[in-house]
Amino acid sequence: MRWMIAAMVGLFAAHAALAQDSLIPERRIVVSRDVDFYGSDLTNIFDTSYEACRNACLNDSQCQAFTFNKRSNACFPKSAISDTQPYEGALSGEVFTADPRALRSAEARAAELDFIPRYQLTQAREQAETIGSLHAGGPWSLQDMLDAAQSRLSDGDTLNAMRWTGAAIGKADRSDLWLEYARLNRTLALEGGNDRSTHDTRAFRATLNAYLRSLNDPQRVSTLMTLSELLIADDAGRRALSALRLAAAIQPRDDVLAALDDAVAKWGFRIEEHEVENNLAEPRICAKFNEDLVKAGVDYATYVKLPDQRLAVQADDRRICIEGLAHGARYTVTFRKGLPAASGETLSRDTELTLYVRDRSPAVSFPGRAYVLPRTADAGLPIETVNLGEVQLTLQRVSDRNLLRSLQDGYFGRPLSYWQFETFGNEIAETVWTGTGAVGNELNTNMTTRLPLGEVVAALPTGLYALTADLPGADKYDETSTTQWFVLSDLGATTLSGADGLHVF
Asked: Is-above-0.85 flag for pTM?
């Protein structure tokens, strides 16, 4: 007899393993404690366990209930519930079957949750298998349990509202009840206490169960919103982002899109910043992303909607730049949904930028580093300017005794910052002339003008000089000035040679 029982248990275990393939249990047990389902026995199984008794019934299509006697470890599978009687020490279970609609769609729902590891979906199934035992609601009707849950919730008793909701799930196994069960457990977790981790775990798995049983789009979206909140609380922002993207694809409600925008700003692939490089001779608009772009094999021009097809798209590292723009014009550029990052992430929505390319800021620079300047009437230095009609000039002479210091302290051959200019003027050089110089000016164009210095240097002694040019009226702290070094000589004009421009006078 024992070998027959062992064989039956093995067969039941094999059937149970096959049943695990479905993420929703086709048959589940709702427990009644200290109750005997009297009569309608299919068979008797002795010297067994509650788990083996339950599995034996679940894997026998004729079994609709069972009673397990904890005192004698005896199992009595039933073909029906014909009578119930109080019996201390008995655990009786009634079989309930899954909604066929949920069974048919479960794998499709699971496939949509591709950002959730499969083992977590399996854990959700285990929760669904045992909830009818954890919250044993066998003696009560579904409506009685729902009313009790609502009553406890109205009284502020979240713990027992959760328990009654869990018991109702055992009999109804509906998406909305699973979601409410998740919400109540999450509330309990937030209240703290020793069971916080348990309630968090129940809430997460219950949310997965709610999604697997969702039969319409509003249920799916509401469940995904809750799932995203739980994932965020668990520091899984990227997975939360996936949940919100799925929700937006199903039903782009305002609250979903707002949550998605917030999640993208924190964890998604997105444009981190943008700039208009208007001070270039050929200006461009650049968008910088928060992740590296694909290095090769992707034509990013196909992901950028341009106002003029003559414009060019260049991608590099984390930036995509639009070239071929004109100063003084406004452009609207759209980075399309689906634009990929190297990580595999993509833009979740079209991102439109409308930017104005203003005229170039006034600027001044010297093209050379150091010159030998002849002390003649036609002496002059080239200067480059942008959007300027004149420049403010200051000429300083380094005294002979400070020549070595100007080299050692790193002044020579370089532009002077505001702080260097102050020290240089007070300790190393003397100002011998100030004035203005007229320069060529064509809007947004680099202009090179020869500054005539013949009259200025005519009466000056030979030696080392620094000519500093700045914007008229510029704030000294803005660091807009530039410096040209030259040696005033009675020789012909030449450029100082040498790799560093320092050692040949």
From this structure: no
